[in-house]
Amino acid sequence: MENAARQPNTGLSYGLIAGLIIVLITLSLYLGGIDMYLSPAAFITYLVMITFAVVAALKKRKMNGGYLSFKEALKITFTVFAISLLLQSLFVYILFNFIDVSFKEALIQASMDKAEQMMRKFGLPDSEIEKATDPKRTMDQFSILGVLLGYAMTCIVAFIFSLLISAIVKKNKPEFPNI
Fold first, then answer.
1. In this structure, which long-range contacts are made by residues 134-142, counting pairs with CB atoms below 8 Å and at least 24 apart in sequence?
2. What is the pTM of this model?
3. Domain ranges in the chain?
4. Quick check: 86 and 148 in contact, CB under 8 A?
5. What is the mean pLDDT of the chain?
6. pLDDT for 127 beyond 70
């Protein structure tokens, strides 16, 4: 038990590192402008989180002599996701509400324009497009409530990824060791 108390919290450590990297990526996307921020390059943040969750679980498994229960793997992987997403959410909230509010407004407009273009591409009538886009125009997704709601929704998806990663990296100790 004393040894477990000295072991670092792998999920927390890797979550903080992943979170800092994701904040730097988000900052780079922001500095690249609206088009860069909305580009598919933004999905690299998810690859960073997935990579760090896998590496953290594998490190813990190695620290445990090559074994890691599903429960412990899930705890580690989800912690990586939750911490890194929290850091990104806090950064985005501060950036768009205190540092550059005009970028937030331009980003919301650009997002709405892209959504409208996609709906037109699928042949939706103007009345349907207006219904779909009007509520979003009034909702501030970067308010504290919007950011918290986004964080919660993203954590639900992250939990699913954590389940998959944990199922892959787990390795149970044999019940009856070879004699």
1. 136/112, 137/108, 137/112, 140/108, 141/108, 142/92, 142/93, 142/96, 142/97, 142/104, 142/108
2. 0.87
3. 2-169
4. no
5. 90
6. yes
164-176 confidence digits (pLDDT tens): 999 999 999 888 7
Confidence of residue 2 (pLDDT cuts 50, 70, 90): very low
Is 76 in contact with 11 (CB distance < 8 Å)? yes
Show the DSSP H helices in the chain as ranges. 2-6, 10-31, 34-37, 44-63, 70-94, 101-121, 126-138, 144-169
Cβ proximity of 89 and 151 under 8 Å: yes
Q: CB-side exposure of 151: number of CA atoms within 13 Å?
A: 19
Q: What is the pLDDT of residue 179?
A: 57
Q: How far apart are CA 137 and CA 128, in angstroms?
A: 15
Residue length, the chain? 179
Q: Which residues have a Cβ under 8 Å from the Cβ of 118 and sit 6 or more positions away?
A: none
